[in-house]
Amino acid sequence: MISVSFLKSKYDRITTLNMIDESDADLIHVDLMDGIYVKEKNFEINDIINNLTDLFLRLDIHLMVYDPLKYIKELLKLNVYMITVHLDGTPNIDEVISYVHSKGVKIGIAINPDEDVNIIDKYLDKIDYVLIMSVYPGKGGQTFIKEVLNKIPYLKDKHVLIGIDGGINDEVIALIKPYNLDIVVSGSFICMSDNYNEQIRKLN
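The chain above was modelled as a monomer; its predicted structure follows.
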């Protein structure tokens, strides 16, 4: 699946969201940053709710925040496919996993480029998804860190969906293709173009 992030775009937010929603994307990737877990702060929760309520595509929400449960209860009012959190920002991870699952939504854990993949071992039988960060969280338009690909084989027999996020374009996708991942997140490559479907086809 292709999940499109609108963190960096040549259009305003509403236009970008509508263009993604009308494209051949599978999911809309929502990066929410609180200015605490990462230095950047992008959206207020009410902005997210108001902007994303009427979209057709399901949401793939990536919470780069500290204590994500504060946001999750509001976000689950939307058409959410999956919510992904970071272990070092989630002191109540078991509560988060249980709550998200109780609402019929998938839950994932993101692994930063400098984190060892085995930090999630004790949660693998509780979660649905692992998101491998191929850039450092908090800023769009970064260059793909190819060393993170070494983490993928470890996850292949763990019965979780595997995704990758950061610096994905039509050249990088050739490096990723042999791993047969479930979800690829791409932002600038798609949203800085005039033809979203053409860019999505290149990734597919």
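Residues 93-102 form the longest helix (10 residues).
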